[in-house]
Amino acid sequence: MLHNIVLMGPPGAGKGTLAKQLKTAYNLTHISTGDMFREAIKEGTELGKLAKSYLDSGNLVPDEVTIGLVKERLAKPDCESGFLLDGFPRTLGQAKALKELSKEINRPVEVVVNLDCDNDELVRRISGRRVCKNCGAPYHIESMKPKVEGVCDLCGGPLYQRKDDNEEALKVRLHHYVVDTKPLLDFYEEEGLLKNFNSLQGSQHLFDEVSAFLKK
Ligand code: ADP
Ligand code: ZN
Fold first, then answer.
1. How far is the CA of 158 from the centre of ligand 2 (A)?
2. Fewer Cβ atoms within 10 A, N terminus or C terminus of the chain?
3. Is the Cβ–Cβ distance between 214 and 1 less than 8 Å?
4. Considering the chain, what percentage of its residues have pLDDT values greater than 90?
5. How many CB atoms lie within 10 A of CB 52?
6. Burial, 190: exposed, middle or buried (Cβ in 10 Å; 0-12, 13-18, 19+)?
7. Residues marked as catalytic
8. Bridge partners of residue 159, in order along the sequence
9. Where does the pLDDT of residue 71 fall: very low under 50, low under 70, confident under 90, or very high at 90 and above?
């Protein structure tokens, strides 16, 4: 089984949903830089104050900040049994830093799971997305409803719409995806780590397909 995993794909491709499924099934440590920033904003820490305007507008938090955050997180003991990076790396600088620091701690990335999705579907998913304020679990108002409206199935927390899940910020996020993040696919292809999956299939099929690959 592969344990040190990077999840990639445009916003709305389903990284967060897949990450939650993989984490539950295989006891991997889920590291979502987006969740970490949102947590810091909620708590009003220095990091949160710095990150807020970037997140709200859909722009990327500067590399030195993000890389430092992930470096600290990956060094924690709960990553020893495997990590699932979700939303990092997003720039070539971050990918190169990850290569170095995962070597340093002896936990090299074993596979990059890339989720392909078409643009119309991304917009549909993001505009109907709701997220648990408490645990970050993702829902959709039509296709992934919680059992009780507005309430998280997993922890009972309230669901809300992310501030960057609006048309304007989504445009900025998609732009950064194309310009900053998509080039990483070539980088990881050359490293022999890239594995593509179609995220238009339902989330259960996708999970089964990714699981089968990780277990090979
Ligand atoms: P999504 O994949 O749906 O766009 P995320 O929750 O992964 O959302 O990220 C939300 C926001 O957090 C990004 O738009 C960006 O502002 C910030 N962020 C998350 N990860 C990174 C990263 N690796 N580098 C820079 N900024 C990041
Ligand atoms: Zn929850």
1. 7
2. C
3. yes
4. 94
5. 17
6. exposed
7. 15, 90, 129, 162, 173
8. 132
9. very high
